[in-house]
Design a protein that fits this description.
By secondary structure, this protein is of the alpha/beta class. It has seven helices and nine strands. β6, α5 and β7 form a beta-alpha-beta unit. The radius of gyration is 18 Å and the shape is elongated. The protein starts with a strand and ends with a strand.
């Protein structure tokens, strides 16, 4: 029997959390209702990672995400029920959490120069950070046509995963201008930071 999840009007990350709860209960067939593209993208990405086949379509202002569990979906979910953190013996997975579009204190002009230099330097490293997550004004660094976006693209070519807060891009009206990484959500970003071996907050 198909389970319907009505996440319309729910703020990030509730659509993903509601979907996750249904998956953890062992539901095999889902119909998730959301009312914006960012929520739809986040839910689809989560379900795909969990082993579901996903088929979205629109019904008026509602985006309906039909999902069907694969053979190993619930076994995978049970394996994830207990947190799995990297051991100290493994290579460090560094995450950088950026919430501003400047680096440092109150001098905006200097801060803009410093953040560009910081990201540019990271891009030149042989081993850049495993993850970079952007929230609040930090998402402005991921916009198309900026030098910071170019630096971030260089890092993705070396294996860095870029997560950009969708609630934040919606707030600033720049979602369509994001030029690198994945439009993400609070659940995914928080989960990533918790599982990193080291987090640097800027």
């Amino acid at each position: 029997m198909k389970t319907e999840i009505d996440a319309r009007g729910k703020a990030c990350p509730q659509p993903v959390i509601m979907t996750k709860a249904a998956v953890e209960k062992g539901e095999k067939e889902l119909s998730v209702l959301v009312d914006n593209d960012v929520a739809a993208s986040n839910v689809q990405r989560f379900l795909t990672k969990e082993g579901f086949s996903v088929s979205p379509h629109r019904e008026g202002d509602t985006i309906v995400i039909e999902a069907l569990a694969g053979e190993n979906t619930h076994a995978r979910s049970q394996e994830k029920s207990a947190p799995s953190y990297p051991s100290k013996g493994n290579k460090e997975e560094v995450a950088i959490f950026i919430t501003r579009n400047i680096l440092g204190g109150h001098d905006k002009e200097l801060g803009e120069v410093l953040i560009k230099g910081f990201l540019g330097t990271l891009a030149q490293m042989d081993c850049p950070p495993r993850f970079i997550a952007f929230m609040n004004e930090g998402v402005l660094l991921a916009l198309k046509g900026t030098s910071t976006c170019d630096h971030l693209l260089e890092m993705t070519e070396k294996g860095t995963t870029i997560l950009v807060c969708g609630t934040c891009t919606n707030h600033f009206g720049v979602t369509e201008q994001v030029g690198v990484g994945t439009i993400s959500n609070m659940f995914e970003i928080t989960d990533t930071l918790l599982k990193a071996t080291k987090v640097i907050s800027i």
